[in-house]
Amino acid sequence: MDPLTQGVLGASLSQSVSKKQHLVIAGVLGLLAGMAPDLDVLIRSQSDPLLFLEFHRQFTHSLFFIPIGSVLCALVLHPLIAKRCGLSFKQSWLYCALGFSTHALLDACTTYGTQLFWPLTNERYAWNTVSVIDPLFTLPILLLLVFATLKKIPWMARIAFLWALVYPTLGMIQRDRAEAAGWQLAQERQHEPTQLVAKPSFANILVWKVVYETEDSYYVDAVRAGTSIKIYPGESVAKLDVDRDFPWLDPNSQQAIDIERFRWFSNGFLAKHPSDEMSIIDVRYSIVPNQLDALWSIKLSPLATADTHVEYNTHRNNTQASRQLLFDMLLGL
After folding, report:
1. Confidence band of 320 (pLDDT split at 50, 70, 90)
2. Which residues cross the membrane (predicted)?
């Protein structure tokens, strides 16, 4: 989730249990601690572009790390901020722990994948109920926190946290409706999917991207789950077959290893780029939900040495045309 949402959610929980005289400082500690786990984005390597994919939402986002992460936050924030406001270290740690504890669970509500139980498992949990940015989720929490802080009313923070529980629940209902529509569409096409997922499109829980896998292909479609279901048929692409698509690739090379790392990150949803024969895309994400215009990919090179990593690329096709297509779907056009 975006840093603002992570921060205000952490602040809403810490303010919910605070006394009136501690409302502001509780909110500040919850806000900063709620954003702290995303400091893992600093773990990067110039020589290994996929390293950050392995560490983002890993140990800092594990539920087992909450006691450690919250203590670290308190050790930094208590002498800098809270001690001057009259809080004990125990109080500072409590507010930091509450803020820190919200982060990983909120990230798991998105589609990216969060390693909630690392180091016991590196499975990435993605409940696909909220987009990584969604104003309808964030703005009510923010506004309620502003009023709670200005008026010194903790119960408004509690309402904010309640909204943070209600909205993903609505997203779960919408996700299930979109998945049901996807299964029906596959049946009409006489396909038997081996797996099917529905993910919210950008900044809403009305229009969903449905991706399903058959024996040899991926199909992407958009579903508008309003008062009635509307389908926007999309595109398909052959599943990645490394031996077929890259017959020159040494299976013991670093590039071959990187493909498997990228496969783990993408939950296996990999395909050869439709217009770039040296690139592999993550089929799950695009601005327009019924298109294969991937948000990120890796690029191989037949000239690379055995120990050379792949190239990692991001694609932000946030053009006026793509925004208009998504907006039309939101309107049901």
Report:
1. confident
2. 23-43, 63-81, 93-113, 125-148, 155-173
Paired with 199 in beta bridges are 209
Cα 61 off chain centre by: 12
Q: How far apart are CA 59 and CA 64, in angstroms?
A: 8
Burial 171-204 (b: 16+ CB within 10 A, else e): bbebbebbbbbbbebbeeeebebeebbbbbbbbb
For 250-284, give one letter per residue: b (16+ CB within 10 A) or e. eeebbbbebbebbbbbbbebbbbbeeeebbbbbbb
pLDDT in tens, 284-308: 999 999 999 999 999 999 999 999 9
Most distant CA atoms of the chain, gap in Å: 68
Residues 6+ apart with CB under 8 A from 177: 223, 225, 229
Structure tokens at 139: 């703005």
Please give the average per-residue pLDDT across 81-91, as a whole number. Answer: 94
pLDDT at 158: 97
Place of tokens 């954003």: 35
pTM over 0.85: yes
At 141, is the secondary structure helix, strand, or coil? helix
Q: What confidence category does residue 319 fall into, taking pLDDT thresholds of 50, 70 and 90?
A: confident
Parse the chain into domains and list their residue ranges.
3-171, 189-333
CB contact at 8 A, 209 and 201: yes
Angle at 231 between CA 226 and CA 237, to 5 degrees: 135
pLDDT confidence of 316, banded at 50, 70, 90?
confident
- Start-to-end CA span in the chain (Å): 29
Question: Cα–Cα distance between 155 and 164 in angstroms, integer?
Answer: 14
Torsion of CA 13, 17, 20, 23, to 10 degrees: -30
